[in-house]
Every structure is written in C-alpha cells, then in structure tokens.
Amino acid sequence: MTLQDERTAHGLRAPEEVLSGTDMNGAWATRHSFARTMLRRAAARGWSVSRTRLDLDADARGTAVYTVDAEGRQLTFIAFCRTLEESERTDRVIADAWDVTAALIEGDLTPEREAELRRNVPVQERGRVDPDTIILTRANRSARFFDYVSDCLASGSQPDVDAIGPSPYLIRSTAFYGNGKFGLKEFTDIPADHPLAVPYRSQMLTAWLLRELSMDMVEHVARAKAAAAGTTAVPLDPEWGKYLGLGNATGLGMVPFVINHPDYLDAWCRLREIPLAAGLGRDYAPGHPDLARVAELLVKADRHLEEKHALRTAPFLPTDAIRPQLQQLLKELRTHMNSATEPAPFLAGLHEKAASLSPEARGIFASIVIELRSDFDEIAESLLRVDGAAPFDAAMPCWELRQLLETNYAWARGYDFTDPERTRYYWFSSAANEEPRRDLRAARPEGAAEHGTDIARRINALAADLEAFPAHRSIADFLLAHPGHRFAAARVQQTRHYLYGELQDNLIDGEFLPLSTQRFQLASYGMNNFSPQSTDWLRVTLFSGAPRAVDINHGTDEDDWLFPTAPKGPEQ
To answer: Whole-angstrom Cα distance, residue 303 to residue 572?
Structure first.
C-alpha cells in the first residue's frame, strides 16, 4: 500500500483541529522534519564530509573550510571566525557583527572566489555574492557554554550535564539567507535531480555544518588552553558530540510567513497528518512489534522530559506535567500488549486519549506513531515540492465564491469584529528591526502600512458585502463595486485546493499567541527544547542528538534521535 492509498484508512484530522493554536502548542519534531530528512539522505546516499582547512588562532579566530561530496555535487562551507566582546553579541537581525559568518557554495573555491566571499560574507546583508553561493549564515558563541566546555576539555575532562543545562549548544545561529537574496542562487535554479532540490535542505545542511564547526572550534581552543597551561586536552566524547546541538532563537517574523505561503502550510501539515493517519488506521494485535517500539519511545520520551525539568516552557506545559500523561499512555499500552484481544486500531484510541490529556501529549504521541514507518520517507519528502498559486479567476460567479466561504472559512465567521479586543493588534514591518512586528492598534501611527495578516477580518467583511450582491454576477463585477475586497477574494480562491492552507486563528486578536505558530514551524524544521522568552519569541535547539560528520561518512546514521538524552558520566 502506498502512502496515498493508506491515508484514507483512518481519516485525516480536520483542519479545525490541525490549524488551531491549541494543537500547535504541542507540535513536536517528526522523522519527516527537515533536519532528519537531510541527514537520512546524506547517510543513505553516501555523502562525504571533510574538513579541508582549520586555520584558527588560539581563540579560534580565522578561517574554516569543509567540503561535502553530495552525490557527485561538490559543496563547500566556508566560515570566517572572530571573537566579539560579550557586550557586542546580539541575536537580533539588526546586528552588524558576529563571531562566525559563513556561506555554503557550489563549485570550486578558487583564491579569487574566496577573496570575494571574504569581502562580502562577514558583512551579511550589506554584501553581495555570486549565484553559485547557496546560503549565507551567521552565528554567535555562547560565552558561557563555549568557554566552559573548552575549559573542561583543556583540563582533560568532559562537561557536566548539569552545568550545560537543558539546552545543549556551543553557538547560536541567527539567520539562514537563501533563494535569491543578496545575489544568492534562486531555489528554482537548482536542478530537480540535485540533492539540495528539496525546500530547506540547503539551510539544514548549512546549520549542521555550523554545528560541526562549533565542536571543531571548541576542541581547537581547548588544545591551545592546554598548551598554555601545560595540561593535555581531550576531544569531546562521541556521545557529547551527538548531544550538543545548534542554538537558535526566533521571533515574530516567522508568523506572517505561513500567512503569505498557504501552500507551504498545507504541505507541512500533510507531512505530519498523512503518515499519522496511515499509522493510526492500522490494526494491531497485542503482540505486534510496533507496539513494543511505541512503548520504547514513550519511555525514551519520558526520560528526555525528565532531563528537561529546568527548561523554561510557559505558556506551554512544563515537562513535569507532561511526564505523568505519557506514563498513563504507557500503562494503557502495556495493558493492551498483555491482553488477548483481536487485532484492532488500538493506536487510534490511544491517540484520542493523548489528545484528551494535553496538546503536548498528543503531539509527542503523534510523532511516535509517525516514527514507526520508514516506507513513506520518499513520498513524504515529495510533499514539500509545491506549485505556485493558480491565477486569480475574475470570471468566477459570486455564488461559487460564497460556497467556498461557507466550506473553508466558516471558522472566521465566529469573530465579532465590533469588539475592540478582536482587533487589538496590527502587524507591520519595523524600520528599526528590519522584520515583522506587531503593536497595539491604538498606537498605530496615522498612515502606517499594515500587513495582510488580518485574514479573518477581511473574510468577514467580504462575506457581508457578498451576501448583498447578485449571486449570478461575476467576481469582476463585484470587485468593481467593492474594490477593497480584492485581497480576500483572491485568498479564498488561492486556498480552495488546500486542506490545511489557513491558520484558523485571528492574528490581530488580543488573545492570539504567536508562540503557537512559531512552535509548529520550528518543529517542522526539526528543532526542540522550546523555551519561550515572552509571548513573541522563543529559544530552541537544532540537531541535538544528531549524528556528526564522522557518522555520515561511515554511513552509520542511526536515524533515532527523536528524544535526545544526555551523555551519562562514568559513575552512571
């Protein structure tokens, strides 16, 4: 059975479930998150990664170069490293200096090309690159973690888990630019047979190489410290090398992205929902080995959450509140496994139970169910390749547009926009921060441009005027009378072929929580350790638990890092 056949075995979850902020509060990475799929392909297709240059001084200032042979394509990651004062470090997009700036390029790194990159990469947005440069990125050291780990290694010891805390990383990335910005290669110019021809694969490869660089840097600094102190440095233990990830933080700029790209939102949701539906639709006898795997992953998830007890998670549930819920699911699963019942879709019932406990419990359990099947990987990956929106059909009769509103946007009609709380915020582009922001509508300067994130309000206004217009007339006639509804009418048409194309939330509402949407997006990338710092932004970790370059070179990616756990000390 193919994925497309099986998806009907247990109906896909309804859009009102999947696209609600409540459900997104529990989003978790899956085997189809972008980081996992990139490394899975790298190991399966025999990619090789080599560090061809590490020209750094005692404080890791200098140049590093890594070469990737990806299915016959030569890719090069070049990083320019410096050391900022702690007071100079900021993760905000308006920063103008970073500890590490880097680029992922295709083709030969000639001396002339390197000189051009050296002039342009360190200045990031103010530079320009050639069209065979794929990604620009930058990162900052964590002064606390980087210095602590290098001190440990210099003294001949490994880090202490408690000292690192629940978010293990050495450096924090702050941006991954691609797709034509600043002269970078357009995504559409990447051939279909190219290993980076899947959306976000270039960014994930670059992030993984940044993480690899961070560990080479910390070991290099440790050796320099040891030489100065007359001690002998040790390398990171392989288990520590896997556990340390790449830090990241994200803010409000991600939210308008999914509003502007309903095709991406639909694809990312299907990436989760189709394999989930297929897994929940299967009949399981008590002795089926998949159930033992579910039990194993529930235990691993519980241990992972136990280690994250100090993680700041509000307004998401604290890990100590999720653990008893997972233990309850495990108890019911083991009871079933020890029973003598006939084969039945037991996981579907357990998924419903998880949903009744919390969004976090449901999200974790859904990721476990998706983990069971590897035969969907190629098909799931193809879901990410989306076509552009169809042209606007001005000849569509108004009655058809009304039907689309009733079918796909009934949720939006539940908002009363005469209530000021429903329009408390507006979204705009901040000149100071150079990225999307939201602010109180009462503080909006006269004439300030507003982003088109107020979908629910626009849909309501469209529906009200459309009801009073002759149903047999065309949309073109309607827009001649009501030109202000052009955006909303186009939006209704644009999303009509998407099951999951619209967030079912009012983004200008006083109660809207941006963190929900951000968490869903970051989980799709493969991030974990979600730690909100306000209602508008959060810190996360990427690639914690993932294989390193040496593992990929040996083809030994175990592809089993859904719930990464910390290394155990010698006494444990």
So the answer is: 15
Pairing of strands 245-250, 425-430: unpaired
Tell me the sheet residues that pair with 81.
Answer: 62, 100
Please give the angle made by the CA atoms of 39, 370 and 555, to the nearest 5 degrees: 25
**pLDDT at residue 572 above 90?**
no
Q: CA–CA separation, 253 vs 438, rounded Å?
A: 10
**What confidence tens digit (pLDDT) does each residue in 31-45 have?**
999 999 999 999 999
Which pLDDT does position 390 carry in this prediction? 83
Q: Enumerate the H helices of 15-126 as residue ranges.
A: 15-18, 21-24, 34-44, 111-120
C-alpha to C-alpha distance for 457 and 506, rounded to whole angstroms = 8
Distance of alpha carbon 566 from alpha carbon 548, whole angstroms: 16
Contact of 458 with 491, CB cutoff 8 Å: yes
Q: Tell me the pLDDT of the chain averaged across its residues.
A: 93
Please, are residues 519 and 316 in contact by the beta-carbon 8 Å criterion? yes
CB under 8 Å to 383, separation ≥6 — which residues?
267, 270, 271, 274
CA–CA gap between residue 129 and residue 106 (Å, rounded): 12
Q: How long a stretch of residues is the chain?
A: 572
Q: What does the alpha-carbon distance between residue 194 and residue 71 come to, in Å, rounded to a whole number?
A: 8
Per-residue pLDDT tens for 221-235? 999 999 999 999 999
For residue 432, pLDDT over 70 is answered with no
Residue 477 burial by CB count (10 A; 0-12/13-18/19+): exposed, middle or buried? middle
| DSSP 8-state symbol, 413 | G
Place of tokens 């973690």: 145
Q: For residue 45, give both structure tokens.
A: 């297709």
The helix (H) or strand (E) run that includes residue 102 is: strand 100-106
Indicate the residue type of 196: L
- Dist CA 559 CA 36 (whole Å): 7
In Å, how far from its chain's centre is CA 177? 15
d(CA 215, CA 141): 11
Q: In whole angstroms, what is the distance from residue 150 CA to residue 145 CA?
A: 8
